[in-house]
Amino acid sequence: MDSKRLGYAFTLLAILIFSLQDAISKHLGSAYPPVFIAMLRFWAFAAFAVALGARSPGGLKVVAATKRPILQILRGILLAVQIVITITAFTTVGLAHSQALLASGPIFVALLSMPLLGERVGWRRWTAIGVGLCGVLVILNPAGTDFDLSVLLPLASALIFALYVIATRLVSRDDTASTSFFYTGVAGAAAISLVGPFFWTNLAPVDWLWMGLLCITGMSSHYFLIRAYDLLDAAAVQPLTYLQVVLAAIIGVSIFGETLNINMVVGSAIVVAAGIFTIWRESIVARRRAAENQAKNDTGK
């Protein structure tokens, strides 16, 4: 199997495992405090990040060296908060409905990249952002008689995750991917451990098995996604992650008895299409910018 095909295989495997992870999170989150579930999950994530860092060239001393310590810690905190909100959304809003709104993440990233990263956004991406936000409104259906404020939870989660992505892009200018991964796990675990113990709940024996499976899926999904990014460009990986919306709908309907209304289906299609276009345009602009910088460097030699 060539590297590109292997990269796609890792991507699809990661998406499948992420979907299973979400289903387990919903199952556990409906019986135990989401903060408690997220804390145990982060402890396993941190252990995995430390083990991975110890095996990397130079060991933990090299991996833990960062030029942006405050921003790295902030990233871990943002992800911890986002996971707690996401688990809460799965249990209150539903798996399918939540994933439909979480799909708006790349749209928020494009929107926030202007003030926070100083990036210029052309009319094509502005159009995609506008269309995507219209898709969000279709899903939310704020004028509907059955509108529930709890649907804002997955939207808040998508916004926080967009801030996490922006922060990741900022630290990537100075730190390696392995350093960022290390701080995501360790800083996130440290932050949530300040709150999580107050929500400690004794798990039923069978739920310890589910918790163990949640930790395994959390570690393996991130590992396979890292391998995928090692072999493929982000522009090839990110559009495939929208398959998680489809899998969430299948799991939500078949296992948890959720229902899909026309607003959710149409809105999801709009958001996914806008998100994929936004990712594609960002990759085009990034390649063009890299080519221009390379040309300038060649001219200066």
Write a structural description.
This protein has 301 residues and is mostly helical. The protein has helices at residues 3-29, 34-55, 59-63, 69-92, 95-102, 105-117, 123-140, 152-171, 177-192, 205-231, 234-237, 243-254, 262-300. The termini are far apart. The mean pLDDT is 87.
Structural class: mainly alpha
Number of H/I helices: 13
Q: Gap between N and C termini, in Å?
A: 40 Å
Indicate the low-confidence ranges by residue numbers.
none
Rg for CA atoms: 20 Å
- Overall mean confidence score, pLDDT: 87
Q: Tell me the strand percentage band.
A: under 5%
Element order: H for helix, E for strand: HHHHHHHHHHHHH
Tell me about the largest β-sheet: none
Q: Give the overall shape, derived from the CA principal axes.
A: globular
Find the count of extended strands (DSSP E, 2+ residues): 0
Bin the helical content: over 70%
Write the layout of secondary structure elements.
Blueprint: H1 3-29, H2 34-55, H3 59-63, H4 69-92, H5 95-102, H6 105-117, H7 123-140, H8 152-171, H9 177-192, H10 205-231, H11 234-237, H12 243-254, H13 262-300
Give a brief outline of the structure.
With 301 residues, this protein is mainly α. 78% of the residues lie in helices and 0% in strands.
Protein traits:
mainly alpha, 0% strand
